Amino acid sequence: MKKAIIPKDDLLNLRYEVLNQLIKNDSETLEFNHFIYNSTLSPVNIDVENNEIRPLGIDLKYDSIFLQKDSVYYKNQERAVLNFKFDKSRIKINLKYITGQELQKLQEIKKSNFWIEFDKKYGDNCICRFSVPFFNKEKTICIVQNSMSCGPLDGGGKTIIYKKKNGKWVVLKTFDQWVS
User: Fold this and answer.
1) Residue 145 confidence (pLDDT)
2) Measured distance CA(127)–CA(40) in Å, rounded
């Protein structure tokens, strides 16, 4: 039996740097005490063929930021992202967490509504979710998807491209915004 080779994630420290900054930014909002972070982060897929089945996350195409000539680098990063295991101890702010499995169990309760079950267990809180940060080859730009859901018609999300300037990740572009 062949063992799958899992590439070492050379960007792990940088991924947590971005996540810590985004969570710190969240902590400066009034609603922060009502956030529960989903510890199952969404993956990033690059140059997905139409018939390929991939986990739900960000689907990127090669462009002026993620260059096709660097495709080997991005495919290796994509594999590392698929194997990313969130480590709560690397987040600098004390947070409340929920796993994807816990959310799935609430969803599977047939005799009730997800949000009724969620509120029973977690109170009046919102679910926040990030994708795993995905970087250009120079590690100066990254893309992250984030969302927040507080009820059946109370949520939103977006995909954001960040650029590192003076040691901080600043918004370069926002797209794929949604609101319910």
Assistant:
1) 92
2) 12
